[in-house]
Design a protein that fits this description.
Number of domains: 1
Distance between the termini: 40 Å
Shape: globular
Oligomer: single chain
Radius of gyration: 16 Å
Number of helices: 8
Structural class: mainly alpha
Strand content: under 5%
Largest sheet: none
């Protein structure tokens, strides 16, 4: 029944409020000014997609293997992420016929990045994470501070894990701040 309700766009109000709060936290983290000014992430639609993907991926990593309410909430949050991407494509002027093709490509890009970043974080391999971020985040493969962005991502991953253990189901999610090159 829960899947049918989600398919029809009917979600319990409490769950919708929690998803909205969690997604707002992801967006706020992805829009932190130092990500763009200090680390060199392009402030473009693709650059913003990359930062949303990074932070959403950190949530997926932090919740993997979860069951019950955390799993269901993560699924709904992932659906919200892709709805936002779809909406953004439409705002960029991509028509109804072009959106599905682009969504398929962006979904493939997203899950590839989630896998690469999670693997590097799990292995505590800063060089691999910096290389993956540099390769994926900028069209020319040159970030101003890939190592700094990787350090931030490691700290943000830890903060996301703590959030999942403490407050995620209530809509609380933190990644820290990007100002110092690592999460606070």
């Amino acid at each position: 029944m829960n899947r049918l309700m989600r398919y029809l766009g009917i979600a319990p109000k409490a769950n919708a409020a929690v998803v909205d709060a969690l997604f707002a936290s992801i967006v706020a983290a992805a829009r932190q000014q130092p990500l763009y000014a200090r680390f060199g992430v392009p402030d473009t639609p693709l650059g913003r997609f990359e930062m949303l993907s990074l932070h959403m991926g950190l949530v997926l990593r932090a919740t993997r293997g979860a069951d019950g309410a955390v799993r269901d909430l993560t699924q709904t949050l992932t659906e919200e992420f892709f709805k936002d991407v779809d909406h953004s494509l439409r705002e960029l002027g991509i028509g109804d016929t072009g959106v599905p093709k682009r969504m398929k490509k962006l979904a493939s890009m997203f899950y590839g990045r989630v896998d690469a970043y999670a693997r590097a974080i799990d292995e505590k391999d800063g060089a691999a994470l910096a290389a993956a971020l540099e390769r994926n985040v900028t069209p020319d493969g040159k970030l101003a501070d890939a190592a700094g962005l990787a350090a931030y991502a490691f700290g943000a991953a830890d903060a996301a894990e703590r959030s999942v253990a403490n407050g995620f189901l209530d809509g609380r999610l933190a990644f820290g701040t990007a100002g110092m090159g690592e999460a606070a």
